[in-house]
Amino acid sequence: MSLALANPAAISLAAGFVDAATLPVEEVSAACSRVLCDAEQNRAALQYGPNVGDGQLRQWIAQRNFSERPLDHAHRMILTAGSNQFLQLASESLLDSGDIVLCAAPTYFVYLYILRDLGARPFGVATDHEGLIPAELHATLQSIEEAGDLERVKILYLVPYSDNPAATTMSASRRREILDVLDRWSGRATITLLTDNAYRDLRYEGEDVPSFTDLGADPAWIVETGTFSKNLSPGLRIGWGTAPEPLHTAIERRKAIIDFGSPHFNQKVALAILQSGQFDQHLVQLRAAYKVKRDAMVDACRRYLGGIQGVSFQVPNGGLYVWLTLPESIDAGPKGALWEAAIKAGVLYVPGGFFYPHEGAPTRHNTARLTFGVQPIDRIDAGIRILASVLN
Ligand SMILES: Cc1ncc(COP(=O)(O)O)c(C=O)c1O
């Protein structure tokens, strides 16, 4: 982000911001008026709210995200200032320093920073075109057991919908296989499955895949989180997460100490949009807008990078990212030649090495994350063209 600010002329395919043109200015403005003009709820909206978040909003989220027993899920839910806060609170509550968190290699790098900040050990598991590989999960657990560290494994973290950065979506059968592996180890290890569904609504093809909860994950060991940052507005800072007891109470207590609950007014405004039915319309427009940009980036990658030996990428079915694999000999990191040359030529990307835990499956430095979220189509095309010429 600071490099983008320092090089205003450069085309940033780096920061994972949402497209400003898609932000629902009119809908939020109308919802604010509705909340403030409603004499029965305007003062309550401007007052402190429940520490766990607005009850009606929790119910709406639960109904939308879980096919059965929405009320139970609403009770298990805590609204937070973005899902990042939920990830932090849940991890802080579950982990002691030195505990191991298994995750895909590569994975969402801000979560890696949260874990390192807590003194935990993020541990990478190898991935393929669907994300984390179940057999590799089993093998990783075996090797950790042989090292005598099995009781330190506390969390398996997954981003199963249009992952950040690799843009993979796990099929239902892949999810079931992962649940099977966890089941096999459940007698020996106490692992909470933490699924981060941040990009679930940004799907441009195919059907929605059921969540791990809906696929039968053990309710005592599943934590799911989501956010309105990608499908509505990150500035509203509304995230959510569900947790079993006693984790739910632990998170609630921590949150009460920190902030007495996340901004109540923002939650009421979001609820007004959701209840008006405008949200589904907004999603249709959002998906259409991002699909065009996704196609533009994929076309540009095919056109300009396709001829370069050793370069590959998978077409993402959702999310905001394209994950590039470069020839083995290229280090795309900040110490490599490509990074400097790309900045000089006027294009920014995120080095793929940032997304790897330092333990487990090895870091692949010949990778890069590109985003089509922010730039208009012509600059997406120009950015890939410049990157290709630098690579050449
Ligand atoms: C995978 C993933 N999880 C969580 C977040 C956090 O989003 P927020 O805190 O805005 O809800 C992001 C943001 O980019 C993300 O990519």
Structure write-up:
This protein has 392 residues and is α/β, with parallel strands linked by helices. 42% of the residues lie in helices and 15% in strands. The protein has helices at 2-6, 25-37, 42-45, 55-65, 70-76, 83-94, 109-117, 134-146, 172-185, 247-259, 264-276, 278-305, 337-345, 377-391, and strands at 11-12, 77-80, 100-104, 121-125, 127-128, 131-132, 153-158, 192-196, 222-227, 239-242, 312-313, 321-325, 347-348, 350-351, 359-360, 367-371. It has an eight-stranded mixed sheet, with helices on both faces. A four-stranded antiparallel sheet has the order 11-12-16-14, with helices on one face. Strand 11 and strand 12 form a beta hairpin. Helix 6 (83-94) runs parallel beside helix 7 and helix 6 (83-94) packs across helix 10. The longest helix is centred in the C-terminal third of the chain and has 28 residues, at 278-305. The radius of gyration is 21 Å and the shape is globular. Bound molecules: pyridoxal-5'-phosphate (PLP).
Short description:
The chain has 392 residues and is of the alpha/beta class.
Keywords:
four-stranded antiparallel sheet; globular; binds pyridoxal-5'-phosphate; 42% helix; 392 residues; alpha/beta; eight-stranded mixed sheet; single chain
Low-confidence stretches: none
From the helix content, strand content and strand pairing, which structural class follows?
alpha/beta
Compute the CA-based radius of gyration.
21 Å
The SSE string, one letter per element, is HEHHHHEHEHEEEHEHEEEHHHEEHEEEEH
Bound molecules: pyridoxal-5'-phosphate
- Rough outline: globular
The neighbouring-strand order within the major sheet is: 2-10-9-8-7-3-4-15
Strand content: 15-25%
* Helix run count: 14
Strand tally, please? Answer: 16
Largest sheet: 8 strands, mixed
Percent range of helical residues: 40-55%
What is the residue-averaged pLDDT? 96
C-alpha termini separation: 26 Å
